[in-house]
Amino acid sequence: MTEVAGHHREDLSIDQQLALRTASRKLGEEFASIYGTETIERFLHSSYDQFATGSTVPNFLPLLAERFARQRLTALARVEGHGDDSRPVVLFLCVHNAGRSQMALGFFEHLAGDAAIAWSGGSEPGVEINPSAVAAMAERGIDISTEYPKPWTDEVVRAADVVVTMGCGDACPIFPGKRYENWILDDPAGQDVEQVRPVRDEIERRVRVLLDELSVPAAHLGRG
Question: Is 144 one of the annotated active-site residues of the chain?
Answer without folding.
Answer: no
